Amino acid sequence: MKKTKFYGILTLAAGLLLVSSCDDDILIESPSNFLTPDALLVDAKGAETYLIGAYDAVQPIVSSGANGKDGWGIHWGSIAADEVVVPPWGGDRKFIYQHQLTPSNGVVRSIWENLYVALNRINSTIDRIEAMNEDEIDNESKTKFVAEAKFLRSMVLFSLVSTYENIPLLTSETTDLESVEVSQVTPEETYNFIIQDLQQAASVLPEEQGGGRATQGAAKSLLGKVYLQMSGFPLNQKDKLASAETVLKEVMDSGVYDLLPNYREVFNLSNEQSVEMVYSIGMDGPARGEGGLLSTFYGPNGNVNNGGGWGTCFINHSFEASFDREDVRLFNNIAKHNANDFTPEEGFSDPETHTVPMNNWRGWKWHAEKPNSYPNDTPFDNPYIRYADVLLMYAEALNGQGKLTQADLDITVNRLRARARMTADAVPDMVVGSQDDNATELLEERRKELCFEGWRRNDLIRFGVYHEAISGITQGGPNAGDPGPEFQDFEIRWPIPQSELDINPNLVQNPGY
């Protein structure tokens, strides 16, 4: 499927828009044309250009990271969970992993700032396109563009409320410094606003895969994820489980999405916007400055240009041990070879290449070719929600209500296990058990299937086992120190950055920091 790339379209700076480049599927603009919003937003073509700027704003921050920006998906979703361990040379990431955060931590600050920059660009998109009159844009295009932007706004707000919990809820464009002294709202208010945006978006957006643009299925899938998160800490609204069940079943019944038959192929460059990708954040590289970090942040020992990774983090031993020995996800997601000595195919398929000591095993899901010129500009799109995630969330919603059946498992979890099975006796089917046992097994299945995709910390918090999980990390090697002994209950959320408290007297620091 041909995908739509969103990169380098608009850069908001000093009230000007730089139209720098764009995908030929959408618009063709001359590079380096400076336009004010008023000059641009005179027709549907200009409105679409402005919308693509909102996609561009989300790209480097909700993802694993891009364009030199710290990505929420890696730092919140994986670093402080139980998929990887961080070495002593991990910089600010080390303190996230160790649970030694202060309000002055650089990553905590940069992720807050960049999420709010993205939010303001999206709010600008919504406000300004909604203000266009019928002589400037037809109603169908206007409604669709606003719905796409509301999906993007939901992504950003979900990241913010998951991470910092008590946040300012900004729902319109901030245009001057007089408007920055805003107060926080409760998490419930933010979640309810997200629900409203996603319901409106789902009622308008097309029922298709999308190739990188927001769709009905993407909005409904994110809505289901939001409902599930509301069922856990800090809201514990168990009534949201039924709402999640309903909306996720609608995605399953749409017929738009399906699993690819081969797990490894899901993460191949040619399948970045496949039928399994409900929504995937577009990246493009190398040498465009629009690539991401996947395949270099996570990657085997060896030189990056040979398909290796940075060595910023290493595999959690207990995570590796949790896999069936003939689970294809073990071989695809954990690198035990040296990329200087072996090709990606050899590292995946030949256990004799697994010569790296266990303390140096690495995460490995997006297999960079050998040789390559990626470094920090890899072309792999970032999966945001896959159909596999939809199936697992649906099973979770049923189990939370005490109504999960074996038939439900067979169309969800056991489909994933069948795909992961390398021999007939490997990766046994899940059998329905007690509600607690089912929850434990569903959470473990999410870790194996969705590792490094940015959801692990939210999952652990939602299931109520975050402290338990990080306390189970006890390993030597290049480890900055086990995080469990450092953890205190208030650290389940991040602090409000000190720089924000300094400029906004209406903000109150999260308890404990």
Per DSSP E runs of 2 or more residues, the count of β-strands stands at 11
Helix content: 40-55%
Strand content: 5-15%
Number of helices: 19
Low-confidence stretches: 5-32
Task: Give the rounded overall mean pLDDT.
Answer: 92
Structural class: mainly alpha
Radius of gyration: 22 Å
Kindly report how far apart the N and C termini lie.
47 Å
Protein name: Starch-binding associating with outer membrane
Family: Belongs to the SusD family.
InterPro entries: SusD-like_N, SusD_RagB_dom, TPR-like_helical_dom_sf
Subcellular location: Cell outer membrane
Write up what this structure looks like.
- It is built from 19 helices and eleven strands.
- The protein is 42% helix and 6% strand.
- The termini are far apart.
- The chain has helices at 37-40, 44-62, 72-79, 92-98, 106-130, 139-164, 187-202, 216-230, 240-253, 317-321, 328-333, 344-349, 387-400, 406-410, 413-420, 435-450, 456-463, 466-471, 498-503; strands at residues 12-13, 16-19, 33-35, 65-66, 69-70, 84-85, 277-281, 314-315, 334-335, 362-363, 382-386.
- The protein is globular and about 65 Å long.
- The protein has a three-stranded antiparallel β-sheet.
- The chain is mostly helical.
Q: How would you summarize this macromolecular structure in one to three sentences?
A:
This protein is mostly helical. 42% of the residues lie in helices and 6% in strands.
Please supply descriptive tags for the structure shown above.
membrane; two-stranded antiparallel ribbon; signal; TPR-like_helical_dom_sf; three-stranded antiparallel β-sheet; 513 residues; 19 helices; mainly alpha
